[in-house]
Amino acid sequence: MCDQTFLAITFGPCDNCSQNKPLMNIYLKNEPINYCSLCVELMACQGLAKGETTNTLKAESESLKAKLEEERAKLHDVELHQVAEKIDALGQFVMKTRRTLKGHGNKVLCMDWCRDKRRIVSSSQDGKVIVWDAYTTNKEHAVTMPCTWVMACAYAPSGCAVACGGLDNKCSVYPLSLDKNENLAAKKKSVAMHTNYLSSCSFTNSDMQILTSSGDGTCALWDVESGQLLQSFHGHSADVLSLDLAPSETGNTFVSGGCDKKANVWDMRSGQNVQSFETHESDINNVKYYPSGDAFATGSDDATCRLYDLRADREVAIYSKDSIIFGASSVDFSLSGRLLFAGYNDYTINVWDVLKGTRVAILFGHENRVSTVRVSPDGTAFCSGSWDNTLRVSAYLRSSGESELRNILYNTV
Amino acid sequence: MSSNSNLSTMKRTVEQLKLEASVDRIKVSQAAADLQQYCLQNASKDALLVGVPAASNPFREPRSCALL
């Protein structure tokens, strides 16, 4: 395959650990060497200071962990829902499914909104990636990937391309053209290469860089044009399932969550893990930043969603109920951050009052697990994708005389 | 070789923990107040919270137009 000779410089056996991985081309004592990103990081930690042994290091790490917990606990003077007691409770919700997008032949795994607030890209288990116009439900583009389980898809900020990947361990970018007859697959560009499945991908603020997370336990930042690995993020000890970039005003950080039950916040420029949170009892399936960028929410297989505040450096709320026993697969905030939409494996979407910690609505309608929930960029609607092969766009319309009794919502506190 | 890499990994963990312990933190009461303020300030713009008039929402029922 032509692809492989082209990628030899950026992917191949590491000179140190001999594993096949994306490589960083660096100079050591004026000699060019090809090390994988993990070996580059470990190089900085080699050699022991005087008196250090495995045991002293272990003891030191235990005491640091205890100190961290102590510092965090000192500032835990009140709970979020206590602070929120004085504000009004939310009234009755009348959200209804406004559009049902049918066309996928198999489970919908991921979706993303375009910044124009009307187009949606979705990917499914059978390898199909479809671009829809959510207003009209028309399919605008369709591509068949050469692999199944396309777990990640993302729309480029310009609206001119989509990125997707899954079991092929890569993230590929497809430029979208206005010409319906054009074969999208022919223009495919392979950008990211991991050593395990691609779980999530996202463009940064431009079409030029993509951030990916993978089953190999790492996240990585790539240059789209050259396919070069720009920065690698090591710190998870198991598959990374999700990532989310901070809203642009707050700077160059992103949060990732994975099967090691940890949610890590990273600095994109240095590759440093700046904060880490480990309070979930099972895999974290999805992470999403609060609109102000000061907090983030997570959805997990332990059937809870949690809110972590970055400035307080701790978990500040848990969204759970004894009656909810299925894992939460996907979470997203409404525009103001007051509502948290969470899709669960019991086919429902629960809507939580973020401040008070109570559930304000349950949405029914999907006939299988809800795999992805995303609010549109301007907050007018949200789209949910499910293993029942459909996507549903729901919105809250104020209208007198419209009968809202048919399925969907009831108020629960 | 493997004991060397174990050591490097442990050292890395210790450095990481030192970094995390040194982060500047604020009180939960203040963080919570800020989150609440953000919500309330933006509540009026949140279409999923307050709703939008059906006539102006692009996701209303599609109406057919009559061509004259």
From TrEMBL, chain A:
Residues 54-81 form a coiled coil. GO terms for biological process: signal transduction. Belongs to the WD repeat G protein beta family. CDD domains: WD40. It comes from Cyprinus carpio. WD repeats lie at residues 101-142, 191-232, 233-276, 277-318, 330-362, 363-393. Keywords: Coiled coil, Repeat, Transducer, WD repeat. PANTHER family: GUANINE NUCLEOTIDE-BINDING PROTEIN BETA G PROTEIN BETA. Transmembrane segments: none annotated. Gene3D superfamilies: YVTN repeat-like/Quinoprotein amine dehydrogenase. This is Guanine nucleotide binding protein (G protein), beta 5b. It comes from the Eukaryota. May interact with RGS9; this interaction stabilizes both proteins and increases RGS9 GTPase-activating protein (GAP) activity, hence accelerating the deactivation of D(2) dopamine receptor-mediated signaling. It holds the Pfam family WD40_Gbeta.
UniProtKB/TrEMBL annotation, chain B:
GO terms for biological process: G protein-coupled receptor signaling pathway. The keyword Lipoprotein applies. Coiled coil: none annotated. It is found in: Cell membrane. Keywords: Cell membrane, Lipoprotein, Membrane, Methylation, Prenylation, Transducer. GO terms for cellular component: heterotrimeric G-protein complex. Pfam families: G-gamma (PF00631). InterPro entries: G-protein_gamma, G-protein_gamma-like_dom, GGL_sf. GO terms for molecular function: G-protein beta-subunit binding. Gene3D superfamilies: Transducin (heterotrimeric G protein), gamma chain. It is a lipid-anchor. Guanine nucleotide-binding proteins (G proteins) are involved as a modulator or transducer in various transmembrane signaling systems. The beta and gamma chains are required for the GTPase activity, for replacement of GDP by GTP, and for G protein-effector interaction. G proteins are composed of 3 units; alpha, beta and gamma. This is Guanine nucleotide-binding protein subunit gamma.
